[in-house]
């Protein structure tokens, strides 16, 4: 099967990494990470536009697309130290959510089956269902935990007559057994949704959701430490799902359902890096970037950096495992250079 | 069945006309025109956002929403001289195009069955299929001709694996027999789509498509006169479908697939008014207004005025029929006031 | 007297709560809170646009306008647990500031007289004069203290030849005796206004103003605790006036006189919630939201949430008083659901 | 009396012409034209922002502010061939429309009294009342006719409880006798305002209003010729009032009450130039430019050019009178250079 | 020498045509047209941003980048009927205008030497000097005439101490003898630049410049016919240089020095197509597209279509020469399909 | 030599301070600070637009340009307590970086030679080379240390074939000996540039660069204290160079190379104020403000305040030295007024 390329715009790869075809495992046999675009916004309940997320996240940077991004902070070059491929987009017709999620799961599972980490660029959060399910299909139901950054719980049931949508993926994942409810960690929730009956369902699943008030009172670091502990209990690794709206709209205006009072960009980048460094990551998605609502591409920039920080954490984790070293966030930039 | 109201935002009506419930014919038994919102953008091939079209077209004005719009040019007040209701939106989940068009057609047909003119606010152009089909379902297959303002022919076949989408409604209408190919008039086409094989299909259907080059060479008025003649041959009336991208992007930037070189806003308003005045209109839709890509709401303003000019033409046509008068575009504004 | 409705756009209510007519007390006899729109920007010294504040604050949300907003953090649904009405706008002609403030005060006083809490959606900050004066007219001069979030002191005297304007309401309130100078708490001031002579006047009134430098050095929580203590000394309750420009322009660009270096959105929401929870609130206004200068509606979203957090705090305060419970910000979201 | 300068921003002059003080006739004793800024938007019924019109119209250009603008088309340099001064702004508090118009009229009259042509930069259209009245105060009631480019008639009576506002100046001018109703020429009207009763009032005043439909049917040139004839019958000269919304929103998005279907920028510039060349102009205003709603400053650019074309027409008219020459629009640019 | 690719963003080609390396003639030996990007804005006198022109003109479309663009109007597919390559960008450091234009001319000349038509995507208009000079270097000094669409004459001498800049290329071309002054045709000039002394210089060169007033008075078609006649007198072909600001800012806001009163997009597209069809084109450039000042990419869309219309005209011209056919603009779209 | 004034727009001064001519020392003989505009963006590697930085930084405020800015926090009025002049812009042609930096250095040196502090408004960061070199030229090579707020190290070598550009000034300063590498303090670095070989070069120079991770781990205050200590070791004073992109893009979107995860506006303002208060400042620049990418002017507002806080710190430092007082950030605003 031929590489589909890009559903919108030219066939480019994330920051210039090598292209591959997800359906041809031979085209990425040495991959550590395979990027997939999920240009789908048919599941959003409000502002659309995330179909252009993959194109913008791949392309938005002032540095050249040269397949190299040496991290100042972690002293690895994720795009070189890891073997990262970009498989292009999965064709996803926004007018057919059911078929789209089915096709995406096939692709994610194909990638995961090779042992590579699938990293999906959304699209709206609908895609988290096939993303994490595709990983679980490979590692086994309930063997992957979820760390989920978001302003919203995304645990709705039927909405607009459909089981598929950007407010429901987390429920589908738990109901299907792909991810255990008691290994489901949510960071950054706030606002006025979901209503009590859905919260009750969540409580019954024994999910652990950190609302911003608790995060403010206890500190983000402490919450992350606690969440990491839960995530690794009886699981092989984590799926990291980052909804860009976990950040405050001031830092991420280009999104569909902005909820004031969120994390700063700095907090999100630090958190993503830390999780990817400390825990074995089995899959990642970065979703809900809506370029038509963005300004000066700041939300696309942020999402691009979320991807890079996840990759950087993974790369440094592997390097430290290999070299027996440890990362020290307090080390001055130029020490030992 | 209860009125659904608005899928996005508060339950308002077009410029303050009375509300009704399309499923309850008694709620609009005296209607001349019933407005329906079709907040769907799951069928668009490029920029989404038209789901917010109904909300913006209903609301965008500097005049108050008082259910009155006396036309300076035509000396009728369409919202008062006609009995216009707004039935709110049909719920359309953008992630399920097939169900959405089915549900919309049900609503349009229900309205048409009462003898009222359905006027649909899109949404992307996918909705033209259920819009005109719903009318044909009432007046009989092939009894309604189509006058279609657009930069694009919208006669594609399968796209992204689907028969439903904003590039294909006109093919579906002809294939289904709802509208005769040789009573299908297209105004304003231009650019580089569709490819020759689709043009051949169109030619075989004996469609009549006025590309901008012909319009420029012959004059818009002459083309409209010719088109009107064809439209009324063996048909009971016309369905008027206005894709806002028939206008140049300078006049209508807020749309999904802008094609430079289109009509001016003035030309479109004059054309819509003229058709609605000269021909018996059986249905109308105004589509492809994408507020996230708009600036200073100028595209929403234009679409609002397209609706008003269509209603104004209908109102004046009925008045003239009643009073035996004729409209004179050269008459000074204040003459005979 | 008939409800005026909306000065701009359709007659909608805040998030779908019930409508009432402020001039007809019977229409809201069971009200806990009555919302009033004050669509006035004739008093602004720089960028206008706040006249559209009421329309945007009422309407901007991705959740449906269903009259329900269950707070994740506080476990109350302010729009249901309280009886909240929206009285529509007071007609305010921006070209006549004096008449406008007089008419607004009449409406605020009418609401306050029924025992309901008036919550006013500005409009520029000019409206704080009639807002707090209308409350004081009911509870008695000097019986209501003021907690005022703002980048600016708004204690100017005559400007552009007028005593009325958005830089002067706080002076008017103190001079008139409506609010005691020594019960006037200001949070978030910064920048280069007002000049020393006005600061001297403020000092003579024994106002207590927390500039951002002091807040940074001492911590916002400590400042709020101190301010709350002052506010409740010999007063029956507080008027909470929130100028959205207390937040940094990054979080609230859509305002008339943005001053860099402000609070984060998170800080403002937490502070508003806390005050509404801890102190007896007698009136609220949320002002200076200028939609033409906003991007992706993030400032309107923030203001909408400021209103909701104020209501949520009030609702939880009443619930705790009723049930003998206490709110714990550290409680995990799903505990006890 | 000292020059007030600019109400907003630095004290600059239109394209760098010399500054003067309107209250000190000696500071512009040799003036042909004196520019006045009227930074007032308290009278607008919808979107504000025109208070920044004077600042933007004065400043928006890519050519340097060097007090020179040689017209390619008319072969005069209006800023040099005429003696043009800029008197800065009249202080106008938007919250006090009555005082503001009174103060503006004083300034306009002062300028007109010296024999100079006052050219006012709005501001919303409220200012046309004091603008033309100030001229009539000098030349005599009924001695100045009005040529008024606008989408709207601006002949409303009381609105929002006020006689002063941007929808009413033309009524005030006629009622006060400053301008004769039968010497009132309106070009470019369209849409759905005013209602029939106001149109009747207009007809009774024997105004002559060219709606866009008549302009389209007869041609703009023919309408202008006819209008010019009426304007000069028993009058000494014309006041030229240009509301930028006479242009289509595609050409002038930055305005308060955009009405689709207007003139092109080219048509407006040609018309203004022609009137200023063919008729004795006694005063000019250019109004309703709202920078917050503009994009890439295209509306400010257009308004700047409207001012320049008016000045250019005046300059060429005087030159031809002096030299006995005639302007030929068909002459190639480089002929005779 | 290796292909440089793109100076900004990923290495893509215009609408997906094949890539080549201008320095390796073998990589495009069968080329009819070779596209070159000139991402330079160091020569602009006002708003920069045109460095992103090549990236946006290549990429902006809703049709896929599939190397095919069948023209509805002309019934050729320029990207398939011609052999079109895209050589990527010439590296141009905006901070070094002299080196940049030298390097660009080398590339243009290299392409022209192979017999292919160079088509350059600007960049600011500075690039017209190396563009046309590179062609003249191949066909001989004075053997290529210039048809120049622009609001500005671009015939300045020294500006900001430099001979190189976007206001001066036409002077350099004439002074150097590359293009004859009396074979220099300018369409669309307007406004207030250049001053009389430069116009005198232009007149002495016997340039022929059509200002918008002459175009309005005589008609664009007649002017183009006259210009075409001059262009082909004693010359081998034409260089077509299109500054997007020849269009009105309403149609092309995304540019550096917008001048109100320009052509419509429709007029420009028709003119470019006509010239490319009627005359032997030896080179083309499309310049002054500044994406940061654009809205909804409408200016990039327009520039993309200008390129396509030029290619389409060339393709149809060659086809007609081959087949002995003639293009009829009045032919209905579906006739003979 | 005559004052050049403004390269773009009218000749205004920063907030209305007095004008001077840098080439005429007599015009500012009593100056404490002289402001220079450096309207140059020819050195930027990505988004341009900073040429308009000086114009916007000078002009953007809601307070009047009255030459007075009394700081609430520091109780000095920097524009009055210091003698501040604005020398206008140095003419800098963006297409000739080498000449431009040479000319700027001449101006900066001229100012520094008089003993006044030069404060330069960029422009892109290219200007830091001539800015600090011009100061060092006066105080002696190596006698001025550098405190550099930036997301980027700006220590590149040759880029695009040039030694001059916005990514390289810091290298040029160290290589030339103007500033000692071991007295070069960088605050706020982050992201993926520069690559290891440049970091090695930096380490060899013994630069001290605080990446955001270290700042997050240790706290900004501690890092600043440490940096200040280094800066004053064997140096006479500091040059303070503030690249606005040190702030997070949410706070400063209007810049050329935004890097997510930066400082808040509050942090930057506090830091600048503190450094200017605690250390002897010999020169300042504020760079990389790109108005075309800004929204609602929030980045220009921030840069304006950075300038004011630097001036305010300087003024208070001098006052305290004079009066023997000390600034207490915890002092309530109204204490002792």
From TrEMBL, chains A, B, C, D, E, F:
- State the organism of origin: Planotetraspora kaengkrachanensis
Q: Which family does it belong to?
A: Belongs to the arginase family. Agmatinase subfamily.
Co-factor binding details: Binds 2 manganese ions per subunit.
Q: Which residues bind Mn(2+) per the record?
A: 125, 150, 152, 154, 243, 245
Single GO molecular-function term? agmatinase activity
Source organism phylogeny: Bacteria, Bacillati, Actinomycetota, Actinomycetes, Streptosporangiales
Q: Which keywords fit this entry according to its UniProt record?
A: Hydrolase, Manganese, Metal-binding
Q: Where does the source fall among the domains of life?
A: Bacteria
Q: Which NCBIfam families match?
A: agmatinase (TIGR01230)
Any idea what this protein is called? Agmatinase
Question: What Gene Ontology biological process does one annotation of this record name?
Answer: putrescine biosynthetic process from arginine, via agmatine
Q: Which PROSITE patterns match?
A: ARGINASE_1 (PS01053), ARGINASE_2 (PS51409)
Q: Which cofactor does it need?
A: Mn(2+)
Do you know which InterPro entries this protein is assigned to? Agmatinase-rel (IPR005925), Ureohydrolase (IPR006035), Ureohydrolase_dom_sf (IPR023696), Ureohydrolase_Mn_BS (IPR020855)
Q: Which residues form the signal peptide?
A: none
